[in-house]
Amino acid sequence: MYTLTTLRAVPPFAIGQVRDLRVRWALEEAGLPYRVRLIGPDEQVAPAYRKQQPFGQVPVLNDDGATLFESGAILLHLGERSPDLLPAEAAQRAQTVTWMFAALNSVEPHVGNLANLIVFSAGEAWARERRAVLEEMALKRLREVDAWLAGRDYLVDRFTVADILMTTVLRQLDGTDLVERCAALGAYKARCAARPAFRKALGDQMALYSPERQIA
Amino acid sequence: MYTLTTLRAVPPFAIGQVRDLRVRWALEEAGLPYRVRLIGPDEQVAPAYRKQQPFGQVPVLNDDGATLFESGAILLHLGERSPDLLPAEAAQRAQTVTWMFAALNSVEPHVGNLANLIVFSAGEAWARERRAVLEEMALKRLREVDAWLAGRDYLVDRFTVADILMTTVLRQLDGTDLVERCAALGAYKARCAARPAFRKALGDQMALYSPERQIA
To answer: Are strands B2-7 and B34-39 parallel, antiparallel or unpaired?
Structure first.
């Protein structure tokens, strides 16, 4: 049985964006049941938790004896246990792993810098000076993924964990029109986000952080 | 035979930092011979190259039929072919993969933001306003890795590809004292950079970009 560790409470801007969403989505796609363990700020800084997650962040996944952190590593671990997530065929597998790293190391840094500016710093002087450049840098990467997706439904020949990572990266720009300015990319994101496993995973995260539950 | 694609020429600040260094280092550790294919700006934007590397970047590794990009994916691919790079034992392997993603997705974004500011924007108004915050964010992550390394020689029980990624991430801050302010982390970086395979890989990259060769 898998146990997913995530945060007990988050600020409003983070609801629907907490990275446990990636793990929930993968588990739903693979039909793997899991339970949720909730932690708060005290646990995040506690030495016992830092031994599991040195940055004090979420998600952490416990798979019987093994403890994993980093959403990318967790998704690769689950992929190795479910062909629904990661193709067994060598070339498809290599392409999937490549796109997992691309989503997290070539796209997310640019997308994240812009998303963080919008959420945390939009009114600051440096951000007003810098915003157009960060938008341009993010859009450049989005257009490169858009070009790759021309004629493709997914990053590889079929849906994989790479699409889970890329879609959740792209969702950080919800509230801007940057993704939708790229026709193939916008359609790709909508295609991935329409999957029942994504809707279920997102619904479960939203329910956890619903105002009723946060007050209760 | 492996073929590593990298850039024919780079600006001075990039010498010793081009990400082909990660692949060279891994190949040297594993004792795997490789040849180098050099490309220039024209190839980087050519459609044929974009089919191999959608962002027009380097490195690309060709392994007979397979073409891989993203240094993280390439190192994982090489790791699966060499136990010198990636332990076969399940728990060690999972920890190595976790730290590969941690180096690239939890540490490098912060380190890279500061390094890019220093190289490209140090004199700009936004950068003067923002620099202290970016230093603080990078240092926070460095201290968390430093705490993990207390009592450890490497990120996992032994040297792995995760150490190649982390060391090359840390080297982006050469010229600052941030890494060295963290005692265990500074010693770790020095320990990794003293390895003969790293010295050989760095020497080969430096030789490629030596002034004599760039002019010739």
So the answer is: parallel
How many angstroms separate the CA atoms of B184 and A54, rounded?
15
Residues of chain B with CATH 1.20.1050.10: 90-195
Q: Which of A49, A93, A98 to mutate to test the interface with B (most CBs of B within 10 A)?
A: A98
CA-to-CA separations, B188 to A47, A69, B165, B177, in angstroms, rounded: 21, 22, 13, 14
Q: Is B176 helix (H, G, I), strand (E, B) or coil?
A: strand
Q: In this complex, do A68 and B98 lie within 8 Å of one another by their Cβ atoms?
A: yes
Is the N-terminal amide bond of B83 cis, ω within 30° of 0?
A: no
CA pair distance A87, A156, nearest whole angstrom = 10
Q: Note whether B141 contacts A101, CB cutoff 8 Å.
A: no
Q: In this predicted model, what pLDDT tens digit does every residue of B18-69 receive, in sequence order?
A: 999 999 999 999 999 999 999 999 999 999 999 999 999 999 999 987 899 9
Average pLDDT over residues B123-145: 97
Residue contact A106–B147, C-beta within 8 A? no
Residues 6+ apart with CB under 8 A from A165: A22, A71, A72, A75, A99, A100, A103, A104
The answer to whether domain B2-84+198-215 has CATH 3.30.1330.40 is no
Residues 6+ positions from B12 with CB-CB distance below 8 Å: none
What is the topology classification, in CATH, of domain A90-195?
Glutathione S-transferase Yfyf (Class Pi); Chain A, domain 2 (1.20.1050)
Count CB neighbours of B73 within 10 A: 22
Q: Where in chain A is the domain with CATH 3.40.30.10?
A: 2-84+198-215
Complex ipTM: 0.96
Going by their DSSP bridges, the two strands B2-7 and A66-69 should be labelled as unpaired
Confidence at B216, pLDDT banded by 50, 70, 90: very low
| Mean pLDDT, all residues of chain B | 96
User: How many C-beta atoms lie closer than 10 Å to residue A112's C-beta?
Assistant: 18
Tokens of B84: 């010198």
Mutate which of B86, B89, B97, B110 to disrupt the A interface (most A C-beta within 10 Å)? Answer: B97
